[in-house]
User: What shape does this take?
Amino acid sequence: MSQTGSNDSRPTWWFSEYTPVGTDLSSPAAVASYDRNQGTDQAADDALLDRLGVREGTCMVDLGCGTGSLIVQAARRKAEAHGVDVSEEMLTHAQGRARRVGVTPHWHRAGFLDYVHRAAPADVVTTKSALHQLPDFWKQQALLNAAAMLRPGGTLYIWDVMFSFDPADTEDHLQRWIDSASRPQGEGFTRADFEAHVREEFSTYTWVLEGMIERTGMEIISRSFPRSTHGEFLCRKRLPTARA
Ligand SMILES: C[S@@+](CC[C@H](N)C(=O)[O-])C[C@H]1O[C@@H](n2cnc3c(N)ncnc32)[C@H](O)[C@@H]1O
Assistant: This one.
């Protein structure tokens, strides 16, 4: 596992991304139960990789890769797969998953803000259920970093808890989400987990994310908000414009 992040050269006001906020996902118990709680699904991972055109030789980076399900599936396709996460426990679990299926993705203990992509420019960058760990100001920096590691024409895919409801209806939408998604302890994420997400993590409005993505020089190819609390953006890094 490489340490490809470094906050050492950053100003002292730089965001500290190695102490994630909200629900604790990095204890050994939380990591062990994460896939069950999250509903990690190999078929869904494969369907996403198909959509993103990940195949042999594709250079793919997954930011906030967690237990590594998506990036391990990418490696099984012989993609050049890079899993990036700030949590050593998550990365250790992800390495075990990779070992069990005989693949060797590149693992990086690094964050959205300080990951330095030293390999060839990426064809695809993904981030699922992780960008909300950063406050909005820092999400913009994270998106700039993601754009910088992509080749022109490369793809950025974002899935996260994000809010597309009318802000005046916030309480209704958030309460409905928490009520329907909460599970008893031991059977999934609990009411307390979702409440902590809303209270302490930094999920934001879809239109805020949209404005940030546009400021990275990427083009939004499609957006989908299947629930008022969840959604995705599929983006492409613009090709350089030809000079006359
Ligand atoms: C909810 S999990 C999502 C994991 C995986 N992407 C998935 O879809 O199952 C969020 C992950 O983001 C990681 N994380 C939190 N802050 C981060 C940061 N600043 N940079 C990179 N990863 C971060 C956490 O350690 C955790 O593994």
Observations:
- The chain has eight helices and seven strands.
